[in-house]
Amino acid sequence: MSSISPTALADKVEPRSGSPRINLLGLDAAGLASLVESWGDKPFRAKQLQRWLHQRGVADFGQMTDLAKSFREKLARHCEVRAPGVLTVHKSADGTRKWLLDVGNGNAIETVFIPEDDRGTLCISTQAGCTVACRFCSTGHQGFNRNLGVDEIVGQLWLARRTIEADREGARLANGAPAPLAATDDRVISNVVMMGMGEPLLNYDNTVAALRLMLDDNAYGLSRRRVTVSTSGVVPMMDRLSRDCPVALAVSLHAPNDALRNDLVPLNRKYPLRELIAACQRYLEFAPRDFITFEYVMLDGVNDGDEHARQLIDIARQVSCKFNLIPFNPFPQSGLKRSPAARVRLFAQRLMDAGIVTTVRKTRGDDIDAACGQLAGEVKDRTRLKERLAGETRFGRIIEVRE
Ligand code: SAH
Ligand code: SF4
Q1: Overall CATH class of domain 85-391
Q2: Which of 68, 128, 265, 395 is the most exposed place for a label (fewest CB within 10 A)?
């Protein structure tokens, strides 16, 4: 993946915002280095700047006290730090938070934070809409609008971390608790999963630039295994990812044979199961101690029978993997139903009896409808959106990944 030059980024940002400034959230280490170099400043300034932006979440150049005044003035003149605007934010009783973010032209994306005892996972979007059009996915039913820029992908992480940290600090001060020790690795966001809206591998360059920032020690410093790309199976791009940035890989399988997968995940017609499984095997050659997480949304009477479980076991024998069974989050246009809980348990048991590590994804944030693409699709109609947000509890899809 080539790094993004400031000029290229400015080209990308300008039409969206009308602003001629360079959005620094869209520059990876190489992009920042070339910006700094083009101004004739010392290379280490780029690293300092990167730490202010991503480690400390600072947007105001005036606060970047160890940068020379003349350098800060250049930043103020030519640059900005701009995450997508917040349309709504909802906190669930279980601590899950969901942001609906404005990406212009009436389009919105979703970001969800799921706190757990031992980790905090942020689920981010990579596209506004999606071209893959899976039958069970409301994002797919909305169609495709556009790829998100690096600034918009990274901006979700930047914004979420900044907001959660500010809230925690506020709560700490309100309780009169002592300041935390300086050196603490208790990160608010310890894991990132690209399981929000869109197909990350069909927005490849921007996804990889964002991944690199997540892994960069001068930015978010997350380890490779704590960042997960989820794909519906874009085979050539899985190969590229294995070479460019082999983070943890989740593959949305959803069906154990081509006939059914062609129907549920239309991309299967282009990259059928045999090719997909071979790509999974190749991926693991670059990440030998890893495994593929197969996601499998449980659809009543469609893919949840004993025969399907048997076929899955055959697939699982070919690749080092774990299964994550996802209770389907229904929406009217899909015409599909969630498998009953007892069926999901039995299905999981069949896989586990065959020695396959299997988890059933918990639904989280039920009271804030943390559902895939469902709110974003209605953002053009604010009245309906508000009604829904005020509405009764319903099930949300989520997004909890167990390693
Ligand atoms: N496009 C990528 C990543 C985003 S979708 C992919 O398909 O993997 C992330 C996950 O959400 C996928 O596993 C998908 O199957 C799941 N998902 C989508 N719609 C859902 C729904 N209505 N109920 C439950 N899970 C859903
Ligand atoms: Fe796109 Fe993933 Fe939804 Fe399929 S499940 S339509 S690939 S976002």
Answers
A1: alpha beta
A2: 68
